[in-house]
Every structure is written in structure tokens, then in C-alpha cells.
Model the fold of this input.
Amino acid sequence: MSTEQNISPVEKAPTFAEFGFAEPILRAILEQGYTQPTPIQAQAMPHVMQGRDVMGAAQTGTGKTAAFVLPILQNILPLASNSASPARHPIRALVLTPTRELADQVADNAFKYAKYTDIRTAVVFGGVDMSAQTTLLRSGIELLIATPGRLLDHITQKTANLSQVQILILDEADRMLDMGFLPDLQRIISLIPAQRQTLLFSATFSPEIKKLAQSYLRDPVTIEVARQNAAADTVQQVIHMVPSEQKKDAVVKVLNARIQKGLSRQAIVFTNSRIGCSKLASALERSGIKAGAIHGDKSQIERMQILEAFKNGTMDVLVATDVAARGLDIADMPCVINHELPFNAEDYVHRIGRTGRAGARGDAIALVDPSEERLLADIEKLMNRQLIRMPVPDPAGGVAADPFFYMPYVAQDPNQPAKTAASDEVAKTNPASQPSIKPAAKPVAALLGGFKKKP
Ligand code: AMP
Done:
């Protein structure tokens, strides 16, 4: 089973009520409409409630936030107070996240889950004015969600005191290490009592993550709901070999072909650099596509506005860098386009994991120029499958020129009727008849007279 399918609730797991959550927490859970815990919740919650350290392999989209926030609320609930005195509201649980977006998202959930309790929750991250955060922290907060840099600013200003933290959560720890936060983490952890509960969540258990866990976790329970390096089986992956100077046009063609085919207009397009991200979004806008860029140089307000426009459908294409996109909870993303391949093959798996969630069909399209063939080989090795190469669709040329209309994903069985656009439509509405994404025995691109691999 793949990570993204693990949002599906577990049939035989105990209900939330059977976990023994207090009434105010249970009420909030019911209000969210959660009827059954997801696999990560079913596995992690009992251990977290017992005060055990937990090392969990799970990505955004699996329900991992509730898997740690709900039991933390339960554990600190006996200490909650309705006193107005800040001294009665020390920081008891601290969640550290790599990005502002993830911090914001975790906090959004935490507010909802804690709303019927006296537990005060707040989020602090960089890119926005510190003064409102300072006022909040001074008033007393029990559950704090923070990015490392901004938290250290508050610690320096003496507006955050970690001496009473009992529970520490490192969310997306792998990304925090990738982003060079290790020294910040070390400093922050040195300010938290050693007698504490520590939870670490990471998409993968790399050697660096294991080392981090060895340093800071005590006899952790390991929970892995995700098969490592797997992509959801519902994601159809396609490679278009395109010289780099034609990539922007190729993105436009792919998007227009999807619209022509009646598929959703929405897509997330990944780029490797901030500059490339902004340039591509502007170029798409000039081509009449409603696009916005989200990357680390954007102010927090801008990022939130773009994300909101994308979520409410007034923007069709979100062009993003990995860091900015990490942790974004965008439901049902129908299409992911890699404008460039990421330098790290595992990031490719994360990127395409944004589509094909919860059993929905998704398309993952990568534009690859000859200089990226080594990266493509790394990805194919990691995924243990050869990805299919197809020519870029040509919506202007009509159906006949558009391989998306008749492209078989597997070599055609000579005993079966030829695959047509119509049969593709049937396949779309009937997931059981979805073609496998295994490559054809013969290079299909060659059959189509499209791109041929360099000799
Ligand atoms: P996360 O992986 O924490 O980002 O959660 C992904 C999405 O799943 C969020 O929108 C949650 O509100 C939702 N979610 C979390 N737990 C459950 C559950 N038990 N049942 C249904 N949806 C859930």
C-alpha cells in the first residue's frame, strides 16, 4: 500500500471514542466528520497517549497531523487552566516544522481539535511581523507550532521559554535536515528538558534521520505506514523529452491538451529554482493560463493569497519549488508537472505524491531535457520501473496529433480491439479498467513517430 492511499480510514481499528479521548476533543473530532482513524492514527495514537517516543514514517495526506495533535491534547488536557495568568499557560508541547506553510497547516488543524478545550494554541513563523506573535506568546500558550528560525528569534527576545516543554514533535524532520536546520534544532532541543516525550515524523528513514532519532529519542516505537519510495498505483507517469528552451511551450501544450480532453484545468508545476519558478508563472500568465508562483522569496502574505486562490479555483496552475510545496494539503490534485526533474530522486516521489491520493486518478508528467537523463535514470532505478516516454501532446493539431487521445500505456494485445479515444474515456470512468503504467514492450514513442531516445 502506498503512502497516499493511507488516508483511507482503517476498518477494524478502534473508533476515536474507544481510544479514550476526553469529551471536548471527541466533540471536535466528530465536528471534523472523522469517523474512523487513518492507519497512521490507528498505529501512533495509542503509543503517543501512553507517553512513548514515536518515530513515524508518514507524509502529508495520511492524517499524520491528527495522529500526533489529538493525543498530545489528550495528554496535556489535565494541565489546562482557564486562569488568565500567563504563568498558568507555559509551553507544554512544541511542534517544529520546516516551512511556514506546514506550520500554518498544522496550526489550522490544532485550532480545530483544541477549540472545546482550555488549551491555548499558537503558531509562529518568519516572514510576518513579530509583534502580534510576541503578544500571543506573552499571554501564555500551551501548544506552540513553530518554524525553527522564528522560534529562536522569540527565544532570543525572551518571549518564548521552553523550560516546561514536555512533548516535542519534529514534523517532516527529513526536510528540516535538508534545509540545514540541524544546528537550530540542536539549539532548540538543548533548551527543552531532557525528561520529555519526543515524536519524530519523516517521509523516509534516511541514515541522517536515524542518527537524529538516536540522539534525541528514547526507545522509540517505529511506525511505518508508507512503503518507502512508492508512488500511488493510481498515478500515471509520463515523460516528455523536451529541449529546455521548449519546456515552457510544452507546459502550455500539456495543460491545453488536458482542457481539450475535458480534464481538470488545475495542476501543480514543480521547478528547481525560485527564479525559474517566478519566470515560468509569468510566462504561463502571458499564455493566458491563470498561474501563480510559490517559493521561498515570496512573503508569507503573498504565499497565503496564492494558495488561497489556487484552493478556491480562481487560479489554475500553481508553480512551486519543493520547499514551498512541501506539506501543502491540497486535496485531489489531478496533475503534477515536473518542469525540471529534481536533483534528488526521492523528491520526485514526493512531488508526484501530490496526485493520485486516496485512490483518485492522477497524472504525473515530467519534461526532461537530454542533460537530465542521468536524473531520470536515478528515478527509474529508485522506483524500479521504466517510465514511459511520449511525445508532447499537440492540442492545436487536433485529436489525431494528440497522443493523449489514443496513447496506450501498455503494448497493445493483438487479440484485443485497438484502443481509441472512446475506450480511453471508458477507462477514465471505470478505474478498474485503467491501463497499467508499465512500459510497452516496444518503445511506444517510436511507434508514434515522436521522440526517440538518443542512441
Ligand atoms: P494530514 O496528513 O495531517 O495533512 O491530513 C490530511 C487531511 O486528512 C486533512 O485535511 C485532515 O483534515 C484529514 N483527516 C485527518 N484524519 C482524518 C480521518 N480520520 N478521517 C478523515 N479525514 C482525516
